[in-house]
Amino acid sequence: MSGSGAQTEEAGPPAVDSTIPHSARVYDWWLGGKDNFAVDRAVGGAMLEAIPTLRQMASENRRFVHRVARHLVADRGIRQFLDIGTGIPTRPNLHEVAQSIAPETRVVYVDNDPIVLAHARALMISTEEGRSRYIHADLRAPEAILADATLVGTLDLTQPVALTLIAVLMLLGDDEAPAARVRTLMDALPSGSCLAISHPTQDFNPEEMGAAVAAATHGGMTLVPRTRDEVERFFDGWELIEPGMAPVMAWRPDGEVPADPYAAYYWAGVARKR
Q1: Which of 27, 77, 107, 269 could connect to 245 by a Cys-Cys bridge, CB 3.0–4.6 Å?
Q2: What is the pLDDT of residues 36-72, one digit of tens each?
Q3: Which CATH number goes with the domain that contains 58?
Q4: Could you give the 3-state DSSP secondary structure of residue 9?
Q5: Is the pTM value of this prediction over 0.85?
């Protein structure tokens, strides 16, 4: 993510820079999408050489989003979501999963890739009872996200909100104070709100993850894997929901726990504000 402001879909699209890789477009390529450029495919391909199962890992992240949405809506009564680092739409999107259970659910998506902005209308197709909106903004400027007119007009911050940060904190180096950015968002949410995070880690395969980091860095893209303890610190002060911090494939799987839950190199967790 880059930049620092917030811009709604109606404000007009910023220019697309096809010379710099963007995580949303790299992810799109891994998932078989077509909204990417040669520079994205070059970085994504180099990372794929380092970790041959990256495409499957990207898919596991999408499945985690769906499981989180179903659990929070059906079991926790959540009816509002703030999804930062949305990526290029891949159906079913979060609001489609949530609204299939509770049609009145409201979702605000946030990303900073102009191509995601170009697809914002697909993200804004909602049920009549609910709402789905998009903000062009950056996690590095949480105050701007919270003050954005679209967010203020869509979400009621006096009622519980689910903040979802799926495979996005990896894009911020420690020098960019990611924990402080997340804390600003957490502090703005009321009791009963939830935070969902998935984050790549070197814990499961240091050699492959190290090679992927080198490939990303060489291609001009930030990738910061973090240990279990480092990821868990993002939840400080909130109560982790069972099963706590887990490999992304093992967080409330739809069926049996996979034979090798460490095959996707991500930690995942969901916590609730008391």
Answers
A1: 269
A2: 999 999 999 999 999 999 999 999 999 999 999 999 9
A3: 3.40.50.150
A4: helix
A5: yes
